[in-house]
Structures are given as structure tokens and as C-alpha cells.
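Recap from last week: sequence in, structure out.
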Amino acid sequence: MTDTRVLLVDDEPLNLEILVDYFEGEAPFSVETADNGEAAWQLLKQSGRDFKLILLDRMMPGLDGIGLLKRIKSDPALAAIPVIMQTAANSPEQIREGLEAGAYYYLTKPYRRDNLLAIVHAALSDAEARHTLSRQLHQHVNSLQFLDQAEFSIRTIYEAGQLASFVAQACPNPDQAVIGISELLVNGVEHGNLGLSYSEKTRLKQEDCWQAEVDRRADLPENRDKRVRLSYQRGNGKITLRVSDQGNGFNWQDFLEMDPERAFDPNGRGIALARLLSFSGITYEGCGNVAVATIDHRSDQ
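Predicted C-alpha cells:
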């Protein structure tokens, strides 16, 4: 089993001791600790460490959690490592500051071991999905930059990743576009066609059985013929992506921004991340089962 190296950063020795105990015997994790931001930075910069996840205390003397997080996200070699921010407070302003700096996963002290491990597994799963998309992305030919118009349809989560990697090659910044395109397609499959609610996904993620339930629902007779459709259009200085599913829609207005109240859940940040990282804008039509995303394309202007 591949070793998953986790860096624990906290200036309180007792907190570090508790965290180490939480990971004890939990395969395949191995942990290293740092009691301040500068010490953590030195560990991260050492060659061969290859940390897969960072659990970071927000409030520390000297280089605090936000300062260290900004360093991590500005370093190309470290930016992809998921960071879980620990905080004793849950004020919207502080959470928003952490989200904007790149902490898309939060834990409020004190927390139970099962809460910690649910967020850890969710963060690692999301990071692996992004890494897989990036690998797939570079398997496709560069000639897709000449694509003007196209129509596609997919049925499964797996197909969503494949199509996102393909279509992103027709966008000006494929590595950014692929994350947002994948998010819209996956949402169309799981929440739209398969009817998986937000609360159900939260529970399934916490129980580490989300993929199994998605696969089960996809095989139900009533869902086998449902499709998520994507149309691609280039023109007038922008690329327009229209993603539609056969579901009943959702209250999309609640998910366009990073909501601090959902920062502690293992899911629910995807649309806001897509809007922030991948697209110039996202709007929804009808009941919310049609997403329209745009990407500025300066070469057309």
C-alpha cells in the first residue's frame, strides 16, 4: 500500500500529540509534525518529503497558518497539496480569508477523530481526482484549439472526467478549465440525473462510500438512459459551455460563492471553485438543471 505522508502543523504540543494519536493505526498514513510555520516550511522545501496533505493550525506565533498557506499556494511545487485549516473560531470573515488563500477544507476545534478522517479522505480524494484529470488532459491532441462548435453527451462519473479532459484542450488554459468542466459534468450526473442530494453526499463522503452509491444508482433501470449533455461554442471573444442534465434542478444561487457555513463539510465547494478558478462566469437556467459557463478567449477579440 502506498504511503500517504501527512504534515501536522500546530504550536501546541498537546494538540500535536492528539493528532498523532488520531492517525495512529490508520493505514496508509504516516505523519510528521512541526510546531511553527517556519519549521513546517523548511520540511516542505526539503527534497524527497512528498507530503500528500497538510493539517494546519491557523493561529500560531510568527508565521501563522494564513501566512504559511499563502507561501504554499504560491510555490508551484507545493500548490497542489490539499491543506486542511484548523481553527478555534468559525467567524465568516476568517473562514472566507482562509478559503481565498486556498484552504478549501476546515475543521473547528475541538473535533472528533471521525470528523477529522472524513475531511482528510475527502481532501485526498479531491486531490487525486484533480491529478487524474491533469494526466488525462495531456493525452489529447493540441489541434482541439481550432474547435469552434461541438456537442457531447455522457452518462457516468468516469465519462465526465474523460470528456472534461478532452474539451479542456479546446480552451485557452486547459489546466484551469478542466477542473470547472469536470465539476459541472459530475454535478449533472450525481445531483441531476442520479438525484443525489447535498446532505446525502455529505453523509456518503463521511462514510467513504460515495463512489459505491453513485455506481449503484447509475445501474438502476430508471437511470441507465439518462444523459448529461455538453455543448461547446467559440465566438465573440469567449467560449461558452452549456451543460444540461435530466434532473429537477437545485437552488444554485446558494453555491456560486464560498459559503463559510459549508466550509466544514467534505463537499459543496465545487461550483464556487469552478467559478473562481476556471470560468469568467457561471449562470443557470430554468430550475437549475442547465449550467452556462463562459471563458474569455482574447485571441478572438
